[in-house]
Every structure is written in C-alpha cells, then in structure tokens.
Design brief:
By secondary structure, the protein is of the alpha+beta class. Helices cover 32% and strands 26% of the residues. It has seven helices and seven strands, in the order ααβααβαββααβββ. Strands 1-4-3-5-6-7-2 form a seven-stranded antiparallel sheet, with helices on both faces. β3 and β4 form a beta hairpin. The longest helix has 11 residues. The chain is globular and about 35 Å long. The two termini are 23 Å apart.
C-alpha cells in the first residue's frame, strides 16, 4: 500500500489550525491513506461488514476501560494516554481511523501531543490501533475507551 499526499486528504482543513501538527505533517511524520486503502485496512483490523465502531460492542472489543475527557482541558486526557501507553508498544506507529474510509499512520507521541486536534473535528467515533497488540483507543465524543480486539 502506498500513501498519498496529505494535501489530498479529505479533512486536512480540520488540521490546519494546529500549526505545529501541520509542520510535522509536511515533514512526513504522518502517512495518509486514500479511501480505498483505508477501507482495506479497516476491513483487516476492524470490520469487513462496514459496521459503525460503536455498534460492534463486546462481540468485537473486550477488556475495555472507560474515560471521560474534556476537549477544553488538555490535561484531562493524561490518564487515558498513560494507560494506553501501558497497553501498547509506544515505539511502534499506530493506525488512526477517522472513519472506515480515512486512515493515517503516526507515532504514539504525536497522537498524545495532538490528540485534541486529531480526534475533535471528525466523526462521532474514531479509533487508534496498535497493530501488534491489537489494542485500540476508541473515542465517542468526550468518552474514550481502551480495549482489545476479538479476532
């Protein structure tokens, strides 16, 4: 799978207000996938049925932990990312799905640093997945869940 230019990413306009993040994007720190590639990745890791993330429940995710954060208080996410870091391999890149047709690969630290920009402007439910551990960080508005994927 090859990536495509961030300029062609459907929601790049939502990220442009975060100048530091945009500098990192321009430097190649994030790899974006087009719609077809994103759907393939989504079907490999999440659902080939095209189900919405929040409709999957316990048949897909288990061992979940729930957190409520505030996008107005960036420090409210510290416990979430601290726990997520304990459950994943933080030196490995994560796949972030904004929805089933929009994926990107980025480093754990970049996700932690810019979570409010990356999660806020998009779908009502998104997820970051550590491919090796099959651990996901799901978000639905201000609720975050850390869970493992059932195969």
């Amino acid at each position: 799978m090859s990536s495509f230019s961030y300029k062609d990413f459907f929601a790049i306009w939502c990220l442009e207000e975060d100048h530091d993040l945009m500098d990192k994007i321009r430097s190649g720190a994030i790899t974006f996938f087009d719609e077809k590639q994103s759907r393939i990745l989504y079907s490999m890791f999440i659902s080939s049925e095209g189900k919405h993330i929040m409709e999957m429940g316990d048949d897909k995710f288990f061992n979940d932990e729930k957190y409520t954060i505030s996008f107005d208080d960036k420090t409210s996410a510290i416990p979430v990312f601290k726990r997520f870091k304990e459950r994943v391999r933080p030196r490995k890149p994560l796949v972030l799905f904004l929805n089933s047709a929009s994926a990107m690969i980025l480093e754990f630290d970049l996700l932690c640093e810019h979570w409010d920009t990356l999660f806020y402007p998009f779908e009502d439910a998104m997820l970051a997945i550590d491919v090796d551990s099959r651990t996901v960080l799901l978000s639905s508005e201000e609720r975050f869940f850390i869970a493992n994927i059932n195969n």
